[in-house]
Amino acid sequence: xxxxxxxxxxxxxxxxxxxxxxxxxxxxxxxxxxxxxxxxxxxxxxxxxxxxxxxxxxxxxxxxxxxxxxxxxxxxxxxxxxxxxxxxxxxxxxxxxxxxxxxxxxxxxxxxxxxxxxxxxxxxxxxxxxxxxxxxxxxxxxxxxxxxxxxxxxxxxxxxxxxxxxxxxxxxxxxxxxxxxxxxxxxxxxxxxxxxxxxxxxxxxxxxxxxxxxxxxxxxxxxxxxxxx
Length: 229
Hints:
With about 230 residues, this protein is an alpha/beta fold. It has helices at about 50-60, 70-75, 85-100, 115-125, 175-185, 210-229, and strands spanning about 10-15, 20-25, 35-40, 65-70, 105-110, 130-135, 160-165, 190-195.
């Protein structure tokens, strides 16, 4: 379904299993060329300003989005769900996107934790119809504890991946994310956001506003999707 104002979006309910249902929001602009199944970060749900703005700006670039909640966020709990439930939620969201926009190629991923849960789900078993993964700040390690452990499963992801990473991201030390992408080979692309942290905030001294940074990185996302498809 396409609304006259695509930014208004369409609310939906996803059934994860018989007992678990979560909210979702479809933004489907006229003439969309792909649909991005967009998961939220650990501490902020699908209506966070970054998520809402991303959906609106991607719509203007011809990319539909299906944003959705993980169950813990739906019930306003602080502790994230077990990985298996997160993976099931990702699969339910992908299936719903395919149902709602059957003509569109699917890209999956999301902000931070949501992107990692999506990649884990893909590594365990291919997400039906998903052509590539886009990570908006992949959380490679805890802040102050550089490690590659959280990225080991990516070796089992055999579809193209785009990593959009701030060069000051405390959860993905620049040298480590560059090395990871290099190891993954041709199926992985790194789009570095200069001076940005994990939230894609940049210092005032750069002369750039956060909204400008967000718009630029989303254009890079849309261009990568265009090239992939």
